[in-house]
Amino acid sequence: MPGWSRNRPRGFGGFHIDGNAVYQALDGNQQATLVEFQDSELLTDETMSNHRLLMLFLFLGILPFNSAAQDAPDPKQAELEMSARVWSMTGLELKELISNAQSGDAQAQYWVGIKCEEGQLESMGPKEARTWFLKSAQQGFAPAQRKYGKLVADNNPPEGERWLLRAAEQGDADAEMWLGAAYEQNWFGTVDLQESIKWYHKAAEAGQVDAQMLLGNRYEMGHGVEQN
After folding, report:
1. Contact call for residues 188 and 158 (beta carbons, < 8 A)
2. Is the pLDDT of residue 10 over 50?
3. Cβ–Cβ under 8 Å, residues 159 and 137
């Protein structure tokens, strides 16, 4: 995955796993799972290999990321997961989504807008999408602010800039990337390469792959930055 790497532990070929150290590194739920497995009647000679595999998984898989797991969930990952969920919704689930949107749920409003835009709702079409995006954006939902900003930028550049900035200020990496493109491509009535590079940098540092590619290209060509 761009933006980060995972180092292979030293001595992988023959190190000794300290079970107590692994246990202490886990959170409460993980500790409970490990204890339950160790105390299980199924832990016989036949399953000891599975037990060792579990310990290895905990050591190599959970331990390096234990502190990161305590951080807030990645917004982009959450958005992708929700997109997959919405895509596969049944008719009843879509009715519930629409009901939640009508009740003021900002996230539901955004996803109803997406379904409208894609023409996947019988009762509403693409014309209604913008209304739902705005409702969600006004409640501070960053993906909706980004989406609405992009939609209105052509006909109302100041409004488009305002909503993209709101999303970017919340740390929405996609909005940061689009701001970089907007300031470079004169979406808002002026070209500002310094501002463009600033937002490309922010998005790239957040792991936004398109921004990383674009920023690398700008440095290669010396466009808006010193060639490097």
Report:
1. yes
2. no
3. no
